[in-house]
Specification:
5 domains, single chain, Rossmann fold, 6-stranded parallel sheet, 11% strand, alpha/beta, Arc Repressor Mutant, subunit A, globular, 727 residues, 7-stranded parallel sheet
Length: 727
C-alpha cells in the first residue's frame, strides 16, 4: 500500500489536488487494502475520487456501476480531462454501436482502461458477463447505491440484482457510495450487496452554508413569487425542480416572458436538446434550469446559488440530494420549497395501482416529508436526525424556523403519555396508531387489538391533539424514541426514554406550522390587507350594477379574489385586466371596460403609483393541453373518452375545463351533458347558479340541491355550462 506522502503525490499527479477532502484518504486506503467499503458522503464531498484514484493505482480494471447514461458520460469526460492516458475511463451501455462496443472491449482487454462504467442492465447481459469473466477486476464500485433500497428516493429494481451478477462474473471487493442514506437505507444496501462487515465511512450531512425554508404554496401566486425571488438574484445560477414535465415547460416559458433566461430539462425531451440545455446551464449561457428530478445527478456545477422546489418532493432523501446541488463551493445556497397538503394527496394518488408494500413505503416517506415541512423545529436538526446524525446546536441561524422561532410549549405530561402508550402496546406500532389510541379514534387496528381497554385510550384532550406529532418528533430528536430498522416506522422507547419516564423533566415543544389543505385552489395571496379597501368597495358596487345589467349573479362577472387583485395592481388596460387571476380574455372584453375606466379615474384622482413590479407576465392560458381540450370539445368528443385519451382522471379533466372557462373562454358541452343528465335536472342546477347561488362553490350547491340527488361531477358540469354562457 502506498505511504501517505506517496498517496498525496499520486493525488497531485493524477488529479491536481494538494490535499484530500474529508474522509477521502481513509476510504481510498481501505479500498487499496482490498476491503469492502461503504461510503456515505453528501453531494459535493468528493465521492467519485474515492474509486477513481484507487482504480488508477491498482492492477486490473474497476467496474463502476452507475444508474444513468448521462451520468456515466459526465464522469468519463471528467476523468479524461484529468488524465493524458487514452481510454483510461470508458463506458459500456446501450448508447454505443456494435463497433464502439468492440473498441471498448479491446481497450479493456489490452489493459489500457482502468475504469469501466456500466449500467446494471448492461451488466446483466450474458455476453457482457462472459466478457468480464476474462479480465482482471480490481474492484466493483456501486455508485448511487441508494438505488438498491425500496426505502431510497430513487429505487431501481435492477440494482438489487447486482450482487448475484458479481458472483457470476467473479468475486472482488466492493465499494458502495451514496450521498443520501438513512440508517434504514444503509442497512438495505449492505445487506443486499452482502457487505455487512464492510468498513463504514460517514461524512457529516451538515451543510452549514445552505439556508432551508418552506413556504405555503398557492397556485395563483407561486409563479409570481418565484419570479420576484429570482429577480433579486441577478446573475446567479439556480435550479427549479417540478414534479411534472408540463410544469417544467410552462414555468421555463413564463420565466423567459419575464426577462429571466431559463431552459427546461426533463426525460421526455429529445436527448440532444436535453443535453444542449444542460450544457447551456453549465456554461452559464442561461441562469436558470427548470427541471424534473431527471436533472442533477452527477452535475458538478459548484456555484448554484439557489434551489427551488415548485412541488414538495416524494422523500426527504430526494429533497436533501436536490438541495445539495446548491452552494457546493461552500458559498451561499438558498433552498426554498413550496408546500401544500394537496400536493401530498396528489403524490399518494400517483402510488395507486402499485403493489401494497410499495404504497406503504411511499406513504411512510411522504409522512416524513410532511413532518419536515410542517414542523417548527430547526430544519437542519430534523434533516440530520433523519440521516442518523445528531445536531447539538439549539439554533442553526440559517433556516426559516430558527430565524423566526415559534413559541415553546411545556409538554412533559403529554410526552410521558406517548412513551407509556408505546410500551403498553408492546412497541409494535407506528406513529399513526399511537396517536389513534391517545385520541380514542376507532379504526380496524385499534378495534382488532382492543386498545379501547387501555388506560390511556382517548385521554388526550381536543386542544392537545395537534401537539401529538410535534411531541413524538421532538422525542425522537431527544433520543427517547427510535424507529425500528427492520420494520421501519414501528416506534421503540429507548433506554433514555425509559429513564425520562422514571424521572420526567421539563419537555418543551413548538406547535407545527399550519398549512392550507387546498393550497392549489386557495385564493390569490393579495387579501384585503394588501388590496386598496376603498377601491375594492367601489369595484364591488360596480359589479352589482353589472350583475343587474347583464342578468348574471355577481360572482359570474368577477369573483372577489379578482376584485382584490384589481385593487392591488390597478390594471388600466384590457390587456392588464385579462392577466388578473380569474378574468381572462373573454370576461375582460365583455365586462372589463367599465372596470378599467373606474380604476383609471381612481388612480388619477388619488395620484397612485401603480406597483408594476407586481404585474407578472403569464403564459397564455391556452397552453397546448388546453387548446387540445377545446378542440376536442368543439369536435364533440365525449368528456370521459377525452379524459382517458389525455391520461387524466375525469375530475382532473374537469379541473382543466374549469380553468379554461374561468379564464374567460366560452365552450359548449351540451352534447355531453344531455347524454349523462336529464334536461330537468340540468335546468334545476342551472337555475340554482343563476338565481340562488351566492358563489360558485360546489359544496354549497351540493348542500342546497341534495347530495343524494346529484353528484359533484354533475354539478361541476352544469356550472361549466352556466359560466360559459356568462363569458
Amino acid at each position: 500500500m502506498a505511504k501517505k506522502s506517496v498517496l498525496t503525490e499520486e493525488l497531485k499527479k493524477k488529479f491536481g489536488f494538494d490535499t484530500f477532502k474529508g474522509n477521502q484518504e481513509p476510504v481510498i486506503r481501505n479500498v487499496l487494502d482490498g476491503k469492502d467499503t461503504f461510503v456515505l458522503m453528501p453531494t459535493g464531498g468528493g465521492k467519485s475520487l474515492c474509486y477513481q484514484l484507487p482504480a488508477m493505482l491498482m492492477e486490473g480494471t474497476a467496474i463502476i456501476i452507475s444508474p444513468l447514461i448521462a451520468l456515466m458520460k459526465n464522469q468519463v469526460d471528467a476523468i479524461r480531462a484529468f488524465s493524458s492516458e487514452e481510454g483510461v475511463a470508458l463506458f459500456l451501455n446501450s448508447s454505443l454501436s456494435k463497433p464502439q462496443i468492440e473498441e471498448v472491449k479491446e481497450s479493456v482487454l489490452n489493459g489500457r482502461t482502468k475504469m469501466l462504467f456500466v449500467a446494471p442492465e448492461s451488466l446483466n447481459k450474458d455476453e457482457n458477463v462472459e466478457f468480464l469473466k476474462n479480465i482482471k477486476i480490481s474492484f466493483y464500485a456501486v455508485d448511487e447505491a441508494h438505488c438498491i433500497s425500496e426505502w431510497g428516493h430513487d429505487f431501481r429494481p435492477e440494482y438489487r440484482r447486482i450482487r448475484p451478477i458479481i458472483n457470476r462474473i467473479g468475486n472482488a471487493h466492493v465499494i458502495a457510495l451514496t450521498a443520501t442514506a438513512t440508517p434504514k437505507v444503509q442497512y438495505d444496501i449492505q445487506k443486499t450487496l452482502e457487505m455487512t462487515n464492510a468498513a463504514v465511512f460517514k461524512s457529516s450531512f451538515n451543510r452549514p452554508n445552505l439556508y432551508y425554508e418552506i413556504r405555503q404554496k398557492n397556485v395563483n401566486d407561486i409563479d409570481k413569487e418565484i419570479i420576484k425571488f429570482i429577480k433579486t438574484q441577478q446573475g446567479k445560477s439556480g435550479i427549479i425542480y417540478c414534479l411534472s414535465r408540463k410544469k417544467v415547460t410552462d414555468l421555463a416559458e413564463s420565466l423567459n416572458l419575464n426577462g429571466i433566461s431559463a431552459l427546461p430539462y426533463h426525460a421526455g425531451m429529445d436527448a440532444a436538446v436535453r443535453s444542449e440545455n444542460q450544457d447551456s446551464f453549465l456554461m452559464e449561457k442561461v441562469n436558470v434550469i427548470c427541471a424534473t428530478i431527471a436533472f442533477g445527478m452527477g452535475i458538478d456545477k459548484p456555484d448554484v446559488r439557489y434551489v427551488i422546489h415548485y412541488d414538495i418532493p416524494k422523500s426527504l432523501e430526494g429533497y436533501y440530494q436536490e438541495t445539495g446541488r446548491a452552494g457546493r463551493d461552500g458559498g451561499e445556497g438558498q433552498c426554498i420549497a413550496f408546500y401544500s397538503r394537496k400536493d401530498l394527496q396528489k403524490l399518494e394518488k400517483f402510488m395507486q395501482g402499485k403493489p401494497i408494500s410499495e404504497q406503504e413505503i411511499g406513504k411512510q416517506l411522504l409522512n416524513e416529508t410532511a413532518a419536515y415541512a410542517e414542523s417548527s423545529i430547526c430544519r437542519r436538526k430534523l434533516l440530520l436526525h433523519y440521516f442518523g446524525e445528531e445536531y447539538t446546536e439549539d439554533n442553526c441561524c440559517n433556516c426559516d424556523n430558527c430565524i423566526h422561532p415559534k413559541i415553546m410549549i411545556e409538554a412533559k405530561e403529554l410526552s410521558c403519555s406517548v412513551l407509556e402508550t408505546i410500551i403498553a402496546v408492546g412497541e409494535k406500532f407506528k406513529t399513526e396508531i399511537i396517536i389513534d389510541i391517545l385520541t380514542g379514534k376507532s379504526n380496524t387496528e385499534t378495534d382488532a387489538y382492543n386498545f379501547e381497554d387501555l388506560d390511556m385510550y382517548g385521554t388526550v384532550k381536543d386542544e392537545e391533539v395537534e401537539l401529538l406529532n410535534p411531541v413524538i418528533r421532538q422525542a425522537m430528536i431527544s433520543g427517547f424514541i427510535a424507529k425500528e430498522i427492520e420494520n421501519y416506522g414501528v416506534l421503540k422507547v429507548t433506554k433514555y426514554g425509559r429513564e425520562f419516564l422514571k424521572n420526567p423533566q421539563p419537555f418543551m415543544i413548538s406547535k407545527d406550522v399550519v398549512f392550507a389543505d387546498d393550497g392549489e385552489e386557495a385564493a390569490p395571496r393579495v387579501g384585503s390587507s394588501a388590496a386598496d379597501p376603498e377601491l375594492f368597495s367601489i369595484l364591488k358596487d360596480l359589479r352589482k350594477k353589472c350583475s343587474k345589467k347583464h342578468g348574471f349573479p355577481p360572482f359570474a362577472i368577477f369573483q372577489d379574489p379578482s376584485l382584490e387583485a384589481m385593487s392591488t395592481t390597478y390594471p388600466i388596460t384590457i390587456e392588464e385586466l385579462q392577466n388578473i387571476p380569474g378574468v381572462g380574455e373573454g370576461r375582460a372584453k365583455k365586462f372589463g371596460q367599465e372596470f378599467i375606466d373606474v380604476i383609471s379615474r381612481y388612480v388619477e384622482e388619488n395620484d397612485i403609483i401603480r406597483p408594476e413590479d407586481l404585474r407578472i407576465k403569464t403564459v397564455a392560458n391556452k397552453s397546448k393541453t388546453k387548446i387540445e381540450i377545446i378542440m376536442a370539445i368543439d369536435r364533440r368528443v365525449a368528456l370521459d373518452d377525452l379524459a382517458i385519451s389525455k391520461g387524466l382522471e375525469f375530475e382532473e379533466l374537469l379541473d382543466e375545463v374549469d380553468s379554461i372557462v374561468f379564464s374567460g373562454t366560452k365552450i359548449n358541452i351540451d352534447y355531453f351533458l344531455h347524454e349523462v343528465m336529464d334536461e330537468e335536472r340540468i335546468d334545476e342546477v342551472f337555475q340554482y347558479f343563476k338565481n340562488i347561488a351566492e358563489s360558485d362553490d360546489i359544496d354549497a350547491a351540493l348542500e342546497y340541491l341534495g347530495e343524494d340527488d346529484y353528484t359533484r361531477e354533475e354539478i361541476r358540469l352544469v356550472r361549466i355550462k352556466f359560466l360559459s354562457i356568462g363569458n
